[in-house]
TrEMBL record, chain A:
This is CoA transferase subunit A. It comes from Yanshouia hominis. It comes from the Bacteria. It holds the Pfam family CoA_trans. The keyword Aminoacyl-tRNA synthetase does not apply. Keywords: Transferase. One of its GO terms (molecular function) is transferase activity.
TrEMBL record, chain B:
Gene3D superfamilies: Glutaconate Coenzyme A-transferase (3.40.1080.10). It holds the Pfam family CoA_trans. The lineage of its organism: Bacteria, Bacillati, Bacillota, Clostridia, Eubacteriales. This is CoA-transferase subunit beta. It comes from the Bacteria. Transmembrane segments: none annotated. Belongs to the 3-oxoacid CoA-transferase subunit B family. InterPro entries: CoA_trans_fam_I, NagB/RpiA_transferase-like.
Length: 316, 256
């Protein structure tokens, strides 16, 4: 049982100030929100962030000034906010050090990290400002230890002379945090539905924290390994954390809490309302279970996915 | 009729999708149009999204490209890198079946799109947007239809920051930039009409307008002069099509 931790223990042991870090999930789906709230409570920050398709998770950390450098490809709670509002405000005020890649490039960079590739040649981003302009200059990059000095470099395709391709750096992640449906004490993980980049970052990162809807035995999880996605030796900490992705979705378990996403969308418009939101839902609760109490049992139960639909539908 | 702008756009999109096409959709009106095409006009088309959900056919409107409303009813939930590999391989195979819908904050004369910012400059933007998402890759490798709100500030003559490359500076420029020259923007669908790109010059022109708009109104809302001599009236959706569109998005998440 050596890898099973409380959320508070896992975050304090495996997340450090200044970590190069990536969260799993995709905008409003299977985001490790409980871990995000615990990171906020513990005051951790100075992160170098591979954001991937981000939403409220990184928006809250940006809004609280916990991000030293942000590698962006897309940041919004799709269908609720067309752009994450703290992210926008911080960048427009010049307070966020940020680089832009295409989502394609970033997802492939994370995959390349999982494959152990030395660098990643792609045909992406050519002819666009994603190559012409750098969000973080070479000079600034040299001052940030965990960022490569170059956003990318052009190289010749060795197998097709004359063809220029974009060589991208492969991130070296300290920490990955993902939320999965099931995990066992040894760290084996079940992911149902789209894995997104979760498996990639779990293989690539030095320290991996998994929060899970259900903690099941090492024997049970091996009875049918078809939905097992991450082997035990890739995982440092397993945290039993039901509704740990709330207010985002979790395939087979619950839908997004759209009123909550809207409440955050509205609150994150101003500094004052944003602070009040965090005081209520993050700093005003001791842990994830107090958070669930605050949300309320009936509200959580109404989010449960309906078999045959896969989301919180009214059965007709 | 002007309160039907979003229905008109979604309907116009639905009619653009052809038999057997594989359609890359995100959210918004392209999704509503593509779902209608799948249900009504072109049941042989398949819908895919950049999160990796392949051949989805939702019962209820998805709000995001990773929504369970798409995931729970797709053929295969591929990891995103597999979607990216598929997109690239379609080009390597010179397949003609892929079409992509992209959005953005602004578009220029040659169909170059910014989804990154408008106003100010890149490092000091007046209004910052979420960033590329999958649109850069789609615009690089796939024929695209661009969605845009038809406002002067969004139709700029020359894009200062290109998130998603269009025809760049004209006919030869994609090849020069390392992009496939036989892929690029086909149309811009807006709340006022449809722009297309001249085959020779690759410059945007007005191809169609809606029953509630005029070429003059569109010109007045475009930040640069365009040829309107080829503009034709576009057919409005009939009552049944409107009913279907509204049944796809009954709570009007994207239909306004």
């Amino acid at each position: 049982m050596g890898k099973v931790y409380t959320l508070s223990e896992a975050i304090s042991k495996f997340v450090h100030n200044g970590d190069h870090i990536c969260f799993g999930g995709f905008t409003t789906n299977r985001k490790p929100y409980a871990a995000v709230r615990e990171i906020l409570r513990q005051g951790l920050g100075d992160f170098i962030v591979e954001a991937g398709p981000a939403g409220g998770d990184w928006d809250m950390l940006i809004g609280e000034g916990r991000v030293k450098a942000y590698i962006n490809c897309y940041t919004a709670d799709s269908g609720v906010t067309n752009v994450s509002r703290r992210f926008r405000a911080a960048y427009e005020k010049g307070e966020l050090v940020m680089e832009d890649y295409s989502q394609d490039a970033l997802m492939l960079m994370l995959h390349a990290a999982s494959l152990g590739l030395p660098f990643l040649p792609v045909r992406l981003m050519q002819g666009s400002s994603l190559t012409d302009m750098w969000g973080i200059s070479k000079e600034v990059r040299k001052t940030i230890e965990k960022l490569p000095d170059d956003k990318f470099v052009y190289v010749d395709n060795p197998f097709n002379p004359g063809e220029k391709v974009v060589a991208l750096p492969v991130p070296q992640l300290d920490t990955a945090i993902i939320h999965v449906q099931k995990a066992s004490p040894d760290g084996t993980c079940v992911i149902e539905g789209d894995e997104f980049h979760d498996v990639d970052v779990a293989v690539a990162a030095k320290n991996v924290i998994v929060t899970c809807e259900e903690l099941i035995s090492n024997e049970e999880i091996r009875l049918d390994p078809t939905t097992n996605r991450i082997p035990p030796f890739c995982v440092a900490a397993v945290v039993h954390c039901p509704y740990g992705a709330h207010p985002s979705q979790c395939y087979g378990y619950y839908d997004y809490d759209n009123p909550m996403l809207k409440e955050y969308g509205a609150a994150s418009k101003t500094d004052e309302d944003f602070k009040a939101f965090l005081d209520k839902y993050v700093y005003g609760v001791k842990d994830h279970y107090e958070y669930l109490d605050k949300i309320g049992a009936s509200r959580l139960l109404k989010l449960k996915t309906v078999p045959g639909y896969g989301y919180a539908a009214t059965v007709k | 009729m002007s309160d039907m702008r979003s229905e008109m756009q979604a309907y116009t999109i639905a009619r653009m999708i052809e038999k057997n096409q594989v359609v890359i959709v995100g959210t918004g009106l392209p999704l509503i149009g593509a779902i209608m095409a799948k249900k009504v006009f072109q049941p042989s088309c398949t819908l895919i999204v950049e999160s990796g959900l392949m051949d989805f056919n939702p019962l209820e409107t998805p709000r995001s490209v990773s929504d369970l409303r798409s995931m729970s009813r797709c053929a295969v939930p591929c990891p995103p890198y597999r979607y990216l590999g598929f997109q690239a391989n379609e080009l390597l195979h010179n397949s003609k079946r892929l079409i992509g819908f992209i959005g953005g904050a602004a578009v220029d004369l040659y169909g170059n799109v910014s989804a990154t910012y408008i106003g100010g400059d890149y490092h000091h933007p007046k209004t910052r947007f979420p960033g590329s998402g999958g649109a850069n890759g789609i615009a690089s490798f796939v024929n695209t239809i661009i969605m845009m709100q038809h406002e002067k500030r969004r139709f700029v003559k020359k894009m200062p920051y290109i998130t998603s490359p269009g025809w760049l500076d004209g006919p030869q420029s994609r090849a020069g930039a390392g992009l496939p020259p036989n892929r690029g923007p086909m149309a811009v669908v807006t709340d006022l009409g449809v722009m297309r790109f001249d085959e020779q010059t690759k410059k945007m022109y007005l191809a169609g307008y809606y029953p509630f708009t005029t070429p003059e109104e569109i010109l007045a809302n475009t930040g640069f002069p365009v040829d309107v001599s080829r503009a034709e009236p576009l057919p409005p959706p009939d009552e049944e099509s409107i009913r279907i569109l509204r049944s796809i998005d009954p709570t009007r998440i994207f239909l306004k």
